[in-house]
Amino acid sequence: MKQNTVVTLAAMKARGEKISQLTCYDYTTARLMDQAGINMILVGDSLGMTMQGYADTLPVTLEEMIIYGRSVARGCRQAFVVVDMPFMTYQISPQQALENAGRLMKETGADAVKLEGGQGMCEQIRAITGAGIPVCAHIGMTPQSHHAFGGFKVQGKGEDGAARLLADALAVQEAGAFAVVLECVPPKLAALVTEKLDIITIGIGAGAGCDGQVLVYQDMLGMNGEHVPKFVQCFAQLGQVMTEAFQTYDSQVKEGAFPSPQQTYAKSDCSDDALARLAQGEQAAPLRLYSVL
Ligand code: KIV
Q1: Rounded to whole angstroms, how far apart are CA atoms 200 and 220?
Q2: Quick check: CB of 23 below 6 Å from ligand 1?
Q3: Are the beta carbons of 31 and 14 closer than 8 angstroms?
Q4: How far apart are CA 107 and CA 211, in angstroms?
Q5: Is the peptide bond before 86 cis (omega within 30 degrees of 0)?
């Protein structure tokens, strides 16, 4: 059993310990995050943008989530892995949601699934959790609904918006979710929701009052150029480091400085005499592995 489970994560909330989560989409990065002690890893459908270059998450398919999810799950020994259910793989019916959540669990080796929506998705959450699959809900600014919101906008504004958000949070908890992501929610409201809920809240653009935090890893590593949302802190400038490394490689290849003798298999070269014979077109006797009559 992993070090991070639904039980240990709930216990962290009870002890007032904060939970770390990052998105991830590949094996190598998953191993690094796992070794760093990140508690939860989200294979987010944000991979539509970060890995595939789409403008939003809507084109991402279940098959794609399975491929990325599987790679991440293989890299995690201790981190709890959550895989996103992509657009239109759960909204149609509780049965569709259960079938696709089942595929994600069987075919990726993840520990839980995540879906977007509050009161309107409770039947789906009941169906999935009823089959023993942990569900993380996602409310507030839910990116799969950005067309309905008229953009990627802060949710839970004003008294009505706040009341709706709290009702969504209580509803997904009642339906059986073990966690809920609060995205782009005002900080005092997110803190209130966190206090009211027994399940863990994971914030993104929702202030420090949540039980845990999640960020898209390319954002927090400074790999996305100028496009950094207000709620992101860049913990490193890897974009710059990578670009400089690519430029150095490019010029060293062009100057012939790479590879140096150190990076070659010189000991395996045949003798200079043999190479000279080859250069003059003399052929070595062919190696016969078996003879034909
Ligand atoms: O897909 C994703 O990366 C997410 C996070 C932003 C919470 O849902």
Answers
A1: 22
A2: yes
A3: no
A4: 29
A5: no
Q: 23 and 41 in contact (C-beta within 8 Å)?
A: yes
Rg value, the chain, Cα: 25
Q: Is the pLDDT of residue 230 over 90?
A: yes
Query: Ligand 1 pocket test: which of 41, 42, 218 has the largest number of ligand atoms within 8 Å of its C-beta?
Result: 42
| Residue in the block written with tokens 């008229």 | 150
What is the spatial distance between Cα 54 and Cα 60, in angstroms, rounded to a whole number?
A: 9
Tens digits of residue pLDDT in 44-86:
999 999 999 999 999 999 999 999 999 999 999 999 999 999 9
What is the residue with the minimal CA distance to atom 8 of ligand 1? 44
Measuring CA to CA, which residue among 192, 213, 193, 211 is closest to residue 11?
Answer: 211
Contacts of 63 (CB under 8 A, 6+ apart): none
Q: Could you tell me the two tokens for 243?
A: 């670009």
Contact call for residues 129 and 176 (beta carbons, < 8 A): yes
pTM: 0.94
Atom of ligand 1 nearest to the CA of 214: 7
- Coil, helix or strand for 23? strand
Q: How far is CA 87 from its chain centroid?
A: 16
pLDDT at 232 over 90: yes
Q: Which of 172, 168, 181, 140 is nearest to 21 (CA)?
A: 181
Report the atom number in ligand 1 closest to the C-alpha of 57: 1
How far is residue 148 from each of residues 46, 93, 142, 229, measured CA to CA in Å? 18, 20, 10, 20
3-state secondary structure (DSSP) of residue 8: helix
